[in-house]
Write a structure and sequence with these properties.
Blueprint lengths: L2 H31 L10 H18 L11 H26 L7 H31 L5 E6 L3 H10 L6 E7 L7 H4 L2 E3 L4 H7 L5 E4 L6 H13 L3 E4 L11 E5 L2 E5 L8 H21 L1 H15 L5 E7 L5 E7 L22 H9 L6 H7 L3 E3 L6 H10 L12 E3 L1 H4 L9 H16 L3 H15 L9
Parallel strand pairs: 1-2, 1-4, 2-3, 4-5, 10-11
Antiparallel strand pairs: 6-7, 8-9
Length: 465
């Protein structure tokens, strides 16, 4: 059994032991802190067994990423979230089927799962730190060889040579001059020397190779050798066709390169983001919106008779048009759909001006979020006229429509918020929007939301869009 498999089994056993101790401790804590929350739990061992069973199934579906090498800590967070969400679902099903015989306090289960998610995340990050320390000190290493003399191979060498990832690059093979000095220091021979070297060096776990089109025979020869000696072989395609992030996809059995990486095209990421949007928008629409609506409606009727809501067509996901919903903050006028709001808008009235400065006029946007036209975080939607104009003037402007528009976004919290009077301001906003699309994580959304909140209590700038 391989080292990685042993590591996964070891982590699973550790998780089960820690889960049992956690449940004992959490039950005791809740019994002391909130006795009513544990009423109905008459058999603690049975409770622990239920949690162990649900965790075991969750672990099979979402195994720990601890054995993986190139993993961002955001991925660890999402895996823990998925595991605990599955535990909650499985526990709910078990309780549903045994409820006639065993009443169970639902509040206890909800609190315990949330607390365990935090606990498990801390455990995972600690284990990750320990494993990275071991790898940095020459433990848990995979011995690898790199073949090729191309910029793509240089980039891969720089990534895999990071000590904490646990790769030991024992040699490189290439023809000609290498412009990467570190890689050149590991040079063993030319591409033609690799086969002879492998026959006398069997302590290799993985081989990564870039080969020109005219070296298919060499590829096949090395591939067969690896298959017969338990060595994993990875072919490196030339990916310097585009600049920036790229990702590979499979169309049938054909690998294709996507122009850019879009994490939100992955189903699991879509689900996470949509659930988050539904939760946040529901809370706002239930707890905040009704009270603000009453106040706004009364004051609007006094200061500026007319409709309460202002509906405007904006460009959304994949260029589709949707109706953006806001509280009306200006007197009704004919140019509302074509002229960008500015700080000198003459049609404004006192309360409307206050709403714009305090962003109260944007509360109805959560209706757009709830029905799926927008997201809490994403590129700000533009008026149709501005989409047409800027798409002609700014390179890659339309890329920002590969994601759902948002109430706030990366551009808005990094200095590109409010009226855009100059092209370079819009170019900066587009650059940040594309950066968001290519580097989305759930934690990035959280950071943007927190930054938006802190900005609201700092500079009181209004987003004209």
């Amino acid at each position: 059994m391989g080292t990685e498999k042993n590591l996964q089994i070891g982590v699973f056993i550790l998780d089960i032991i820690l889960l049992a101790f956690f449940m004992v401790g959490f039950h005791a804590l809740m019994k002391w802190f909130s006795p009513e929350s544990v009423v109905g739990i008459q058999n603690l061992p049975s409770l622990i067994m239920m949690y162990v069973l649900s965790y075991t199934i969750s672990y099979i579906l979402f195994p720990a990423l601890i054995g993986f090498r190139l993993v961002r800590w955001e991925d660890v967070f999402l895996r823990v979230f998925s595991t605990c969400a599955m535990m909650f679902l499985l526990n709910s099903l078990i309780i549903f089927f045994v409820r006639p015989a065993i009443p169970f306090p639902r509040a206890f289960m909800a609190y315990s799962i949330i607390a365990y998610a935090i606990f498990l995340l801390i455990v995972r990050l600690i284990l990750r730190k320990i494993l990275m320390y071991i790898r940095a000190n020459k433990g848990n290493l995979k011995k690898i060889v790199l073949i090729g003399n191309e910029p793509t191979v240089y980039q891969l060498y720089d990534i895999l040579s990071t000590p904490t990832y646990g790769y030991d690059i024992i040699g490189t093979f290439y023809d000609g001059e290498c412009t990467n000095p570190d890689m050149a220091g590991k040079h063993i021979g030319g591409v033609g020397d690799i086969y002879g070297w492998l026959t006398s060096n069997h302590k290799v776990n993985e081989i990564y190779g870039y080969f020109p089109k005219d070296q298919h025979d060499t590829i096949n020869m090395i591939s067969k050798f690896c298959d017969n000696h338990l060595i994993r072989f990875y072919y490196i395609p030339a990916i310097d066709v585009f600049k920036g992030n790229m990702t590979f996809n499979m169309v049938g059995n054909i690998p294709v390169i996507a122009r850019r990486e879009e994490p939100l095209r992955q189903t699991k990421n879509k689900i996470v983001k949509r659930l988050f949007d539904l939760i946040i928008s529901s809370l706002v629409l239930i707890l905040i919106f009704p009270w603000i609506f009453i106040v706004v409606a009364i004051v609007l009727k006094i200061q500026s008779p007319g409709p309460i809501f202002f509906l405007q067509e904006r460009t959304g996901l994949d260029g589709k048009i949707f109706k953006c919903i806001k509280f009306r903050s200006m007197h009704v006028h004919d140019n509302a759909d074509t002229v960008q709001g500015t700080d000198d808008d003459s049609p404004k009235f006192p309360f409307g001006d206050f709403m714009r400065k305090a962003n109260i006029n944007e509360i109805p946007l959560f209706i757009n979020v709830f029905i799926g036209d927008m997201s809490v975080v994403g590129p700000r939607p533009h008026m149709l006229k501005h989409t047409q104009e800027y798409s002609r003037l700014i390179n890659r402007f339309m890329v920002r429509h590969f994601a759902k528009p948002g109430i706030t976004g990366l551009a808005q919290v990094t200095g590109y918020r409010g009226e855009t009077r100059y092209i370079d301001q819009m170019e900066g906003r587009v650059k940040k929007d594309i950066e968001y699309i290519e580097n989305w994580t759930f934690l990035l959304d959280i950071k943007i939301i927190l930054k938006t909140i802190t900005n609201m209590f700092g500079k009181n700038e209004r987003d004209a869009n």
